[in-house]
Design a protein that fits this description.
single chain; 498 residues; alpha/beta; Rossmann fold; Glutamyl-tRNA Synthetase, domain 3; 4 domains; seven-stranded mixed beta sheet; four-stranded antiparallel beta sheet; 13 helices; elongated; RNA-binding
RNA sequence: GCUCGUAUAGUGUAGUGGCCCAUCAUGAAGCCCUCUCGAGGCUUCGACCCGGGUUCAAAUCCCGGUACGAGCACCA
């Protein structure tokens, strides 16, 4: 390389060019910048069919935030011919108790979003025997122990990098204490936990002898009181990933320490940890911060009408509002898999959604703040109007009387009544053909009173107006001319977005 | 406090030593088209956190700083 540069300096660049032209012409061709499309290549996936999983807590229905995990894992599974496991991590009956309806709704929403059903569904609460048997194994092999310190006591040991007294108990003692944890008349919640023996001097405090299971006495909605000792996420998830043969874990970077904890556990068992990829935190400005438990509270107190209240960021609300799964998928794929913490505006999602719905959304006129206008002069008495200017949709047919409705904001000036005629401020017809560049305004001649509901942040507004007669069924996404897209719901309108 | 992570236009993103006075989308502005303030087409605007170092060559590698975020739960 040095020689080459010296040569270039003394002989000039053109000399090099002519040599290259002879010896290796392909090097001279300008590379064209290529932009990677879609998701980055999944590492370590060329020699195996990937097995991925998405593991929500069924303490409520799926939200916008969940959709990232579903989309990313689902896309990889689909594109690489692998498998997607939908796993219910429902091992907490106390802090985030499972909601029984969620076991039904989550798979439905998963299929709606991904476009295919999960290849496997795993319910943690039905696999408790497995977790117990590995917990037992951990104790018998002396890489786990029952700890009877209080949380505060152990915290001090963790900070001081010192072993807690329970750490050196014999295997026999541990097995006895384990029995006592599982015994109704033994330890009570809070009196003992199962810990994984790692190393109390580890640099990262989060990894020091982390807890694997605890006692819960609150009944589980699916399995009742069959179990008393329940695994914590890091343990349950680690065991289950191995049991299911998960090859790739894609999750938030807030779980980086989970990976490290679980890798230590895998080392004890002699297993290989799956390939792990992380994404950063996503904030959606318009959604603020919602937690499943807070939403549940607010629904119970009637602040929201239900899980599909259009103000909420749940998948059922988005779906109800006319957000398409394709738009959600494009949105998440475009954000990609970086570890950056990002804040995104909903405008991007809406833009993708517009591309999905615009080609099939029939146009309708909706008059907000309607005022009646009498028109004088010659105008067509029967009229056919396009329902969608770019596609072949049946036309809208109306008989025109001399009374029509226009929006108050459009009244009192000379306007073009769309597809009908030019009028002056008093309603006198000036021309049937479009005669100048005056503003084109939508209008209704035969219509019904109708309510348009618009969710905006934490507010919900309804506008009374007149919607032109149509016979589209509920659920149709229409475009209200000059306003935006909306879904027909019980004959009324629910705003999708502009 | 300890540990870990990230830093490219307003917002996202591509880019893994020479294709880069940096890609694409979104956004904003303008024009064209259109009997919608929609869709479509075109144009324009706008960025490599800072400071050192390595190298002929750095957005890219190294070190330091700064900023932001996360974990250190008997939640997931």
């Amino acid at each position: 390389m040095d020689d080459a540069n010296t040569f270039a300096e003394t002989e000039g660049l053109s000399a090099i060019e002519s040599i290259l032209k002879k010896e290796a012409p392909e090097l001279l061709e300008k590379k064209i910048q290529t932009r990677r499309e879609g998701l980055p290549e999944l590492p370590n996936s060329s020699n195996q069919k990937p097995v991925l999983r998405f593991a929500p807590n069924p303490n409520g229905p799926l939200s916008f935030g969940h959709s990232r995990g579903l989309v990313i894992n689902g896309e990889y599974a689909k594109n690489l011919g692998g498998e997607l496991i939908l796993r219910f991590d429902d091992t907490d009956t106390t802090v985030k108790p499972p909601m029984i309806e969620a076991y039904e709704s989550i798979p439905i929403q998963q299929e709606w979003l991904c476009g295919f059903p999960a290849h496997r569904i795993v319910i943690a609460s039905e696999r408790m025997d497995m977790y117990h048997s590995y917990a037992h194994k951990m104790l018998s092999n002396f890489f786990g122990y029952v700890c009877t310190c209080t949380g505060e006591e152990f915290k001090q040991f963790r900070i001081a990098k010192e072993d807690c007294p329970c750490r050196n108990n014999s295997v026999e003692k541990n097995l006895t204490l384990w029995e006592k944890m599982n015994d109704t008349n033994g330890f009570q919640p809070g009196e003992a936990v199962l810990r994984v023996k790692t190393d109390m001097t580890l640099k990262n405090p989060a990894l020091r002898d982390w807890p694997a299971a605890r006692i819960q006495t609150k009944s589980h909605p699916r399995v009742g009181n069959m179990w008393r000792v329940w695994p914590l996420l890091d343990f349950q998830s680690a065991i289950e990933d191995h049991l299911q043969g998960v090859t790739h874990i894609i999750r938030g970077k807030d779980l980086m320490d989970s990976t490290r904890k679980q890798t230590l556990l895998y080392a004890h068992f002699g297993w290989d940890y799956p390939e792990t990829i992380y994404w950063g935190r996503v904030k959606v400005h318009e959604f603020g911060s919602f937690s499943t438990s807070q939403m549940k509270k607010d629904i119970d107190s009637d602040k929201y009408e239900g899980w599909d209240d259009p103000r909420l960021p749940t998948l059922s609300a988005l779906s109800r509002r006319g957000i398409k799964p394709e738009a959600l998928r494009t949105f998440w794929i475009e954000l990609g898999l970086t570890q950056k913490d990002i804040a995104v505006p909903l405008a991007t999602l809406y833009s993708h959604n517009t591309k999905c719905i615009d080609p099939t959304a029939p146009r309708l006129a909706f008059i907000r703040n309607p005022v009646e206008l009498t028109i004088f002069g010659d105008y067509p008495k029967e009229i056919e109007i396009e329902s969608h200017s770019d596609t072949e949709m049946p036309k809208r047919k109306f008989s025109i009387t001399d009374k029509i409705w226009i929006e108050k904001a459009d009244s009192g000036k000379s306007i073009r009544l769309k597809d009908l005629c030019d009028i002056d401020a008093e309603g006198n017809v000036e021309s049937v053909e479009r005669s100048d560049k005056r503003q084109v305004v939508h209008w209704v001649t035969q219509g019904k009173n109708c309510e348009l509901t618009v969710a905006f942040g934490d507010d919900i507004n309804t506008y009374q107006g007149i919607l032109e007669d149509h016979n589209y069924p509920d659920g149709t996404i229409v475009q209200l001319e000059r306003i935006g897209y909306a879904v027909i719901e019980n004959g009324d309108l629910l705003m999708t977005h502009d």
